[in-house]
Design brief:
- Keywords: Coiled coil.
- This protein is mainly alpha-helical.
- It is 91% helix and 0% strand.
- The protein is rod-shaped and about 140 Å long.
């Protein structure tokens, strides 16, 4: 059986070095990608929290808006009642003047 060509120690060291650096590059890339994914997950969690807070604020603002509309409707109803009272008083006063004479 014939042997392959003889490799010098330097050539062996060079091929081992290339192999190790290749593995290290892959490890670094995996660490970078893992860190990147973790950073994205953290950012997603922050954004989800902001969305949750905005939804809560939206509910509060809608409740305040509904209260304001209700108060406004109450005031409009009071104004209408006062206007109707004034109209009735305007109609009744001449009749009362006739009765008191």
């Amino acid at each position: 059986m014939a042997r392959g060509p003889h490799k010098s120690k330097a050539a062996k060291a060079k091929s081992i070095h290339r192999f190790r650096t290749k593995i290290l590059k892959k490890k670094r890339k995996a660490v970078y990608e893992t860190g990147y994914v973790e950073a994205l997950e953290k950012r997603i969690n922050i954004l989800e929290e902001k969305v949750k807070n905005l939804e809560e604020d939206n509910v509060k603002l809608l409740a305040e808006r509904n209260d304001a509309i209700s108060d406004l409707n109450d005031k409009v109803a009071r104004i209408r009642a006062l206007e109707m009272d004034q109209e009735l008083n305007a109609r009744i006063r001449p009749a009362l003047k006739i009765i008191h004479k």
